[in-house]
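Subject: Sanity check before I submit

Could someone independently write out the C-alpha coordinates for this chain? I want to compare against mine line by line before I put it in a report. The sequence has 371 residues.
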Amino acid sequence: MKKYFHVFLPLLVFPFMSVNAQSVIYASRQLEQMAKMVQMTDVVKKLPEGVSVGCFSYKGLPLSVVKKGNRVQHIGYSVFSEQQRNDIGEIRSNFVERFLLTTDLPFVREKSVEIEMQEEKIVFRSGGLATLKGFVKDNSCSVEASLVKEKFHDVKWKKAGKTVCEMGFPADHELMTGRNMLENDERLQMDIMSMSDTVINKLRNLDESSLQKHHEVYIQHGGNYMFKELTADRYFTKNVGNSFSPLCTPMVPRESFANLLTDNDIENNYTLDVTLKQFNYNQSVFSVPLTKWIAYYKEQGFKPYFCIIGQNKSMLDCLLILRNVEMGCNHVMRLNFDTETLAYRKGKIKARLNAFVPTSNLKDIYYENKL
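---
Independent answer below. Compare away.
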Protein backbone atom coordinates (compact mmCIF):
# COMPACT_ATOMS: atom_id res chain seq x y z
CA MET A 1 0.00 0.00 0.00
CA LYS A 2 1.47 3.27 -1.05
CA LYS A 3 -0.15 6.13 0.81
CA TYR A 4 0.50 7.44 4.30
CA PHE A 5 -2.29 6.64 6.73
CA HIS A 6 -3.13 3.52 4.71
CA VAL A 7 -0.13 1.43 5.66
CA PHE A 8 -1.21 1.49 9.28
CA LEU A 9 -4.59 -0.19 8.78
CA PRO A 10 -4.68 -3.95 9.26
CA LEU A 11 -6.51 -5.41 6.27
CA LEU A 12 -9.61 -7.55 6.80
CA VAL A 13 -9.98 -6.42 10.41
CA PHE A 14 -12.91 -4.13 9.66
CA PRO A 15 -15.67 -4.75 7.13
CA PHE A 16 -16.16 -2.52 4.11
CA MET A 17 -19.11 -0.67 5.59
CA SER A 18 -20.23 -0.75 9.20
CA VAL A 19 -23.77 0.27 10.07
CA ASN A 20 -24.94 0.27 13.67
CA ALA A 21 -28.46 0.31 15.02
CA GLN A 22 -28.69 4.05 14.44
CA SER A 23 -27.37 3.70 10.87
CA VAL A 24 -24.15 5.63 11.44
CA ILE A 25 -21.67 4.94 8.68
CA TYR A 26 -18.08 6.07 8.21
CA ALA A 27 -16.60 7.62 5.09
CA SER A 28 -13.53 5.37 5.36
CA ARG A 29 -12.26 2.32 7.20
CA GLN A 30 -9.64 4.55 8.75
CA LEU A 31 -12.26 6.82 10.35
CA GLU A 32 -14.14 3.83 11.73
CA GLN A 33 -10.94 2.49 13.28
CA MET A 34 -10.07 5.91 14.70
CA ALA A 35 -13.49 6.20 16.36
CA LYS A 36 -12.91 2.88 18.08
CA MET A 37 -9.39 3.80 19.16
CA VAL A 38 -10.53 7.02 20.85
CA GLN A 39 -13.59 5.20 22.27
CA MET A 40 -16.17 7.61 20.87
CA THR A 41 -18.39 5.36 18.74
CA ASP A 42 -21.36 5.96 21.05
CA VAL A 43 -20.69 9.70 21.11
CA VAL A 44 -20.62 9.86 17.32
CA LYS A 45 -24.09 8.28 17.10
CA LYS A 46 -25.58 11.12 19.14
CA LEU A 47 -23.86 14.05 17.44
CA PRO A 48 -25.97 16.32 15.21
CA GLU A 49 -25.33 16.80 11.52
CA GLY A 50 -22.63 19.35 10.76
CA VAL A 51 -19.36 20.32 12.46
CA SER A 52 -18.96 19.53 16.16
CA VAL A 53 -15.85 21.21 17.57
CA GLY A 54 -14.51 19.99 20.93
CA CYS A 55 -17.22 17.33 21.24
CA PHE A 56 -14.92 14.75 22.88
CA SER A 57 -11.28 14.47 23.90
CA TYR A 58 -8.30 12.19 23.51
CA LYS A 59 -5.17 12.45 25.64
CA GLY A 60 -6.61 15.63 27.12
CA LEU A 61 -7.07 17.36 23.75
CA PRO A 62 -10.47 18.18 22.22
CA LEU A 63 -11.69 16.45 19.08
CA SER A 64 -13.80 17.62 16.15
CA VAL A 65 -16.26 15.52 14.16
CA VAL A 66 -18.03 16.27 10.88
CA LYS A 67 -21.26 14.44 10.04
CA LYS A 68 -23.30 14.77 6.87
CA GLY A 69 -26.60 13.04 7.40
CA ASN A 70 -25.74 9.73 9.06
CA ARG A 71 -22.24 9.67 7.57
CA VAL A 72 -19.14 10.44 9.65
CA GLN A 73 -16.94 12.45 7.30
CA HIS A 74 -14.16 13.45 9.69
CA ILE A 75 -12.58 12.85 13.09
CA GLY A 76 -9.53 14.77 14.27
CA TYR A 77 -8.00 17.04 16.88
CA SER A 78 -9.73 20.43 17.07
CA VAL A 79 -6.90 22.39 15.46
CA PHE A 80 -9.34 24.90 13.92
CA SER A 81 -12.31 26.88 15.17
CA GLU A 82 -15.45 26.80 13.04
CA GLN A 83 -14.53 30.18 11.56
CA GLN A 84 -11.01 29.01 10.71
CA ARG A 85 -12.47 25.93 9.04
CA ASN A 86 -14.60 28.19 6.89
CA ASP A 87 -11.59 30.39 6.10
CA ILE A 88 -9.35 27.64 4.72
CA GLY A 89 -11.96 25.11 3.60
CA GLU A 90 -13.19 21.76 4.79
CA ILE A 91 -10.79 19.64 2.73
CA ARG A 92 -7.66 21.22 4.23
CA SER A 93 -9.12 21.47 7.75
CA ASN A 94 -10.14 17.82 7.82
CA PHE A 95 -6.77 16.61 6.60
CA VAL A 96 -4.70 18.63 9.06
CA GLU A 97 -6.87 17.66 12.03
CA ARG A 98 -7.05 13.98 11.09
CA PHE A 99 -3.33 13.84 10.32
CA LEU A 100 -2.43 15.23 13.74
CA LEU A 101 -4.69 12.80 15.57
CA THR A 102 -3.26 9.80 13.69
CA THR A 103 0.22 10.65 14.96
CA ASP A 104 -1.02 9.92 18.50
CA LEU A 105 -3.09 6.80 17.77
CA PRO A 106 -1.71 3.27 18.28
CA PHE A 107 -1.72 2.20 14.63
CA VAL A 108 0.59 -0.63 13.58
CA ARG A 109 3.36 1.33 11.87
CA GLU A 110 5.99 -0.10 9.56
CA LYS A 111 7.93 3.18 9.66
CA SER A 112 8.18 6.15 11.96
CA VAL A 113 5.81 9.09 11.52
CA GLU A 114 8.74 11.28 10.53
CA ILE A 115 9.85 8.95 7.72
CA GLU A 116 6.29 8.56 6.45
CA MET A 117 5.93 12.34 6.39
CA GLN A 118 9.06 12.62 4.28
CA GLU A 119 7.83 9.98 1.84
CA GLU A 120 4.41 11.60 1.52
CA LYS A 121 5.90 15.13 1.24
CA ILE A 122 4.15 16.44 4.34
CA VAL A 123 6.44 19.25 5.46
CA PHE A 124 6.72 21.98 8.06
CA ARG A 125 8.53 25.08 6.81
CA SER A 126 8.23 26.53 10.30
CA GLY A 127 6.93 25.04 13.51
CA GLY A 128 6.19 21.31 13.68
CA LEU A 129 3.93 18.68 15.19
CA ALA A 130 4.29 20.13 18.68
CA THR A 131 3.39 23.60 17.40
CA LEU A 132 0.37 22.19 15.57
CA LYS A 133 -0.77 20.41 18.71
CA GLY A 134 -0.53 23.71 20.57
CA PHE A 135 -3.24 25.15 18.32
CA VAL A 136 -5.65 22.54 19.68
CA LYS A 137 -5.42 24.31 23.05
CA ASP A 138 -5.22 27.81 21.61
CA ASN A 139 -6.53 28.48 18.10
CA SER A 140 -6.39 32.26 18.38
CA CYS A 141 -3.89 32.59 15.52
CA SER A 142 -5.07 33.75 12.15
CA VAL A 143 -4.94 31.07 9.45
CA GLU A 144 -4.56 31.33 5.70
CA ALA A 145 -4.14 28.73 2.99
CA SER A 146 -3.32 28.46 -0.69
CA LEU A 147 -2.88 25.87 -3.42
CA VAL A 148 0.49 26.25 -5.12
CA LYS A 149 0.47 25.44 -8.86
CA GLU A 150 -2.60 23.24 -8.22
CA LYS A 151 -0.25 20.65 -6.71
CA PHE A 152 0.62 21.55 -3.12
CA HIS A 153 -1.44 22.92 -0.23
CA ASP A 154 0.18 25.50 2.01
CA VAL A 155 -1.35 26.43 5.40
CA LYS A 156 0.05 29.26 7.54
CA TRP A 157 -0.71 30.24 11.13
CA LYS A 158 0.13 33.85 12.01
CA LYS A 159 0.27 35.87 15.20
CA ALA A 160 0.77 39.64 15.12
CA GLY A 161 1.55 39.33 11.42
CA LYS A 162 4.35 36.81 11.98
CA THR A 163 4.20 33.22 10.70
CA VAL A 164 4.47 30.85 13.67
CA CYS A 165 3.75 27.64 11.74
CA GLU A 166 3.63 26.71 8.07
CA MET A 167 2.58 23.26 6.85
CA GLY A 168 2.54 21.88 3.32
CA PHE A 169 1.10 18.71 1.80
CA PRO A 170 0.29 17.44 -1.71
CA ALA A 171 -3.09 17.80 -3.40
CA ASP A 172 -3.49 14.03 -3.36
CA HIS A 173 -6.91 12.43 -2.97
CA GLU A 174 -5.68 9.24 -1.30
CA LEU A 175 -3.58 11.14 1.20
CA MET A 176 -6.20 13.76 2.04
CA THR A 177 -9.11 11.35 2.51
CA GLY A 178 -7.30 8.38 4.04
CA ARG A 179 -8.83 6.09 1.39
CA ASN A 180 -6.75 4.25 -1.19
CA MET A 181 -7.90 3.56 -4.75
CA LEU A 182 -9.23 0.09 -3.96
CA GLU A 183 -11.41 1.43 -1.16
CA ASN A 184 -12.58 4.30 -3.36
CA ASP A 185 -13.79 1.84 -6.00
CA GLU A 186 -15.44 -0.39 -3.40
CA ARG A 187 -17.39 2.45 -1.82
CA LEU A 188 -18.34 4.49 -4.86
CA GLN A 189 -21.80 3.05 -5.53
CA MET A 190 -22.79 3.19 -1.86
CA ASP A 191 -21.60 6.81 -1.62
CA ILE A 192 -23.65 7.79 -4.67
CA MET A 193 -26.81 6.03 -3.57
CA SER A 194 -26.67 7.72 -0.16
CA MET A 195 -27.13 11.15 -1.78
CA SER A 196 -30.35 13.11 -2.04
CA ASP A 197 -31.64 13.57 -5.58
CA THR A 198 -33.80 16.62 -4.95
CA VAL A 199 -34.11 18.82 -8.04
CA ILE A 200 -34.00 22.56 -7.36
CA ASN A 201 -33.49 25.89 -9.10
CA LYS A 202 -35.62 25.32 -12.18
CA LEU A 203 -35.68 29.10 -12.67
CA ARG A 204 -32.62 31.30 -12.31
CA ASN A 205 -32.25 35.01 -11.68
CA LEU A 206 -29.19 35.39 -13.86
CA ASP A 207 -27.43 38.60 -14.75
CA GLU A 208 -28.05 38.84 -18.47
CA SER A 209 -24.82 40.78 -18.94
CA SER A 210 -22.92 37.65 -17.82
CA LEU A 211 -24.54 35.56 -20.57
CA GLN A 212 -23.73 35.29 -24.24
CA LYS A 213 -26.74 35.15 -26.54
CA HIS A 214 -26.60 32.78 -29.53
CA HIS A 215 -29.88 32.88 -31.44
CA GLU A 216 -32.48 32.17 -28.72
CA VAL A 217 -30.03 30.39 -26.41
CA TYR A 218 -28.17 32.13 -23.58
CA ILE A 219 -24.77 30.66 -22.71
CA GLN A 220 -23.28 30.82 -19.22
CA HIS A 221 -19.56 30.27 -19.78
CA GLY A 222 -17.76 28.25 -17.13
CA GLY A 223 -14.30 27.96 -18.66
CA ASN A 224 -12.59 25.00 -20.32
CA TYR A 225 -10.23 22.23 -19.26
CA MET A 226 -7.44 20.41 -21.14
CA PHE A 227 -8.68 21.61 -24.53
CA LYS A 228 -11.05 24.32 -25.73
CA GLU A 229 -13.97 22.03 -26.65
CA LEU A 230 -14.19 20.58 -23.12
CA THR A 231 -16.16 23.28 -21.31
CA ALA A 232 -18.18 23.95 -18.18
CA ASP A 233 -20.76 25.97 -20.16
CA ARG A 234 -24.50 25.82 -19.42
CA TYR A 235 -27.41 26.89 -21.57
CA PHE A 236 -30.62 28.79 -20.77
CA THR A 237 -33.80 30.14 -22.31
CA LYS A 238 -35.33 33.46 -21.30
CA ASN A 239 -38.78 33.51 -19.70
CA VAL A 240 -41.43 36.18 -19.46
CA GLY A 241 -40.38 38.41 -16.57
CA ASN A 242 -36.69 38.09 -17.49
CA SER A 243 -35.95 34.95 -15.47
CA PHE A 244 -34.12 32.06 -17.12
CA SER A 245 -34.73 28.31 -17.33
CA PRO A 246 -32.12 25.63 -18.10
CA LEU A 247 -32.48 24.44 -21.67
CA CYS A 248 -33.78 20.90 -22.21
CA THR A 249 -35.44 20.18 -25.54
CA PRO A 250 -35.04 17.71 -28.43
CA MET A 251 -34.59 20.75 -30.67
CA VAL A 252 -31.19 21.49 -29.12
CA PRO A 253 -29.90 18.04 -28.02
CA ARG A 254 -26.22 18.71 -27.43
CA GLU A 255 -26.74 21.69 -25.15
CA SER A 256 -29.63 19.94 -23.40
CA PHE A 257 -27.54 16.89 -22.56
CA ALA A 258 -24.76 19.15 -21.29
CA ASN A 259 -27.29 20.77 -18.95
CA LEU A 260 -28.62 17.42 -17.72
CA LEU A 261 -25.11 16.24 -16.80
CA THR A 262 -23.89 19.40 -15.09
CA ASP A 263 -26.56 20.36 -12.54
CA ASN A 264 -29.69 19.06 -10.82
CA ASP A 265 -32.07 21.74 -12.05
CA ILE A 266 -34.00 19.77 -14.70
CA GLU A 267 -36.59 17.19 -13.67
CA ASN A 268 -35.80 13.85 -15.28
CA ASN A 269 -35.90 10.09 -14.78
CA TYR A 270 -32.65 9.13 -16.48
CA THR A 271 -30.59 6.23 -15.18
CA LEU A 272 -26.84 5.83 -15.62
CA ASP A 273 -25.74 2.28 -16.44
CA VAL A 274 -22.13 2.55 -15.29
CA THR A 275 -19.20 0.27 -16.06
CA LEU A 276 -16.56 1.21 -13.51
CA LYS A 277 -12.98 0.44 -14.56
CA GLN A 278 -11.36 -0.34 -11.23
CA PHE A 279 -7.86 0.30 -9.96
CA ASN A 280 -7.05 -3.44 -9.79
CA TYR A 281 -7.89 -3.92 -13.51
CA ASN A 282 -11.27 -5.44 -12.71
CA GLN A 283 -14.54 -3.74 -13.48
CA SER A 284 -17.95 -3.53 -11.86
CA VAL A 285 -21.35 -2.63 -13.28
CA PHE A 286 -24.08 -0.72 -11.47
CA SER A 287 -27.03 1.57 -12.17
CA VAL A 288 -27.83 4.86 -10.43
CA PRO A 289 -30.28 7.69 -11.06
CA LEU A 290 -28.56 10.53 -12.90
CA THR A 291 -29.76 12.96 -10.22
CA LYS A 292 -27.95 11.01 -7.49
CA TRP A 293 -24.71 10.94 -9.48
CA ILE A 294 -24.85 14.71 -9.91
CA ALA A 295 -25.69 15.27 -6.23
CA TYR A 296 -22.72 13.06 -5.31
CA TYR A 297 -20.05 14.74 -7.40
CA LYS A 298 -21.22 18.24 -6.47
CA GLU A 299 -21.22 17.42 -2.76
CA GLN A 300 -17.68 16.09 -3.22
CA GLY A 301 -16.55 19.37 -4.82
CA PHE A 302 -16.08 18.28 -8.45
CA LYS A 303 -16.64 20.70 -11.34
CA PRO A 304 -18.06 19.23 -14.59
CA TYR A 305 -16.57 19.75 -18.06
CA PHE A 306 -18.38 18.34 -21.09
CA CYS A 307 -17.89 17.87 -24.82
CA ILE A 308 -19.27 15.89 -27.75
CA ILE A 309 -16.84 13.43 -29.32
CA GLY A 310 -19.10 12.19 -32.11
CA GLN A 311 -22.67 11.58 -33.27
CA ASN A 312 -24.35 8.74 -35.18
CA LYS A 313 -27.96 9.56 -36.04
CA SER A 314 -29.67 10.17 -32.67
CA MET A 315 -26.77 8.82 -30.57
CA LEU A 316 -24.25 11.18 -28.99
CA ASP A 317 -20.78 9.98 -27.95
CA CYS A 318 -19.69 12.30 -25.12
CA LEU A 319 -16.92 12.97 -22.63
CA LEU A 320 -17.54 14.27 -19.12
CA ILE A 321 -14.57 15.09 -16.89
CA LEU A 322 -15.29 15.99 -13.29
CA ARG A 323 -12.42 17.94 -11.80
CA ASN A 324 -11.51 18.47 -8.13
CA VAL A 325 -8.56 20.85 -7.99
CA GLU A 326 -8.04 20.73 -4.22
CA MET A 327 -8.02 16.92 -4.17
CA GLY A 328 -5.90 16.64 -7.31
CA CYS A 329 -8.21 14.09 -8.95
CA ASN A 330 -10.85 13.64 -11.64
CA HIS A 331 -13.73 11.36 -12.59
CA VAL A 332 -13.59 10.58 -16.32
CA MET A 333 -16.77 9.37 -18.07
CA ARG A 334 -17.47 8.30 -21.64
CA LEU A 335 -21.22 8.41 -22.27
CA ASN A 336 -23.64 7.31 -24.98
CA PHE A 337 -26.89 9.24 -25.09
CA ASP A 338 -29.96 8.80 -27.30
CA THR A 339 -31.24 12.31 -28.04
CA GLU A 340 -34.71 10.97 -28.89
CA THR A 341 -35.26 10.37 -25.17
CA LEU A 342 -35.24 14.12 -24.54
CA ALA A 343 -38.92 14.23 -25.53
CA TYR A 344 -39.71 12.21 -22.38
CA ARG A 345 -36.69 13.09 -20.21
CA LYS A 346 -36.20 9.49 -19.19
CA GLY A 347 -34.22 6.49 -20.31
CA LYS A 348 -30.87 4.77 -19.83
CA ILE A 349 -27.48 6.36 -20.45
CA LYS A 350 -24.52 4.04 -20.87
CA ALA A 351 -21.33 5.27 -19.20
CA ARG A 352 -17.77 4.01 -18.75
CA LEU A 353 -16.10 5.49 -15.71
CA ASN A 354 -12.53 5.89 -14.49
CA ALA A 355 -12.98 7.29 -10.97
CA PHE A 356 -10.51 9.29 -8.84
CA VAL A 357 -7.94 9.62 -11.62
CA PRO A 358 -4.97 11.66 -10.33
CA THR A 359 -4.58 14.86 -12.32
CA SER A 360 -1.03 13.83 -13.19
CA ASN A 361 -2.44 10.72 -14.96
CA LEU A 362 -5.37 12.40 -16.65
CA LYS A 363 -3.79 12.99 -20.05
CA ASP A 364 -2.64 9.37 -20.22
CA ILE A 365 -6.19 8.16 -19.53
CA TYR A 366 -7.56 10.42 -22.26
CA TYR A 367 -4.97 10.07 -24.99
CA GLU A 368 -4.51 6.32 -24.59
CA ASN A 369 -8.30 5.92 -24.90
CA LYS A 370 -8.59 4.01 -21.63
CA LEU A 371 -12.02 5.47 -20.88
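---
OP: Matches mine. For the report I'm noting this point. Confidence is low (pLDDT under 50) at residues 1-21.
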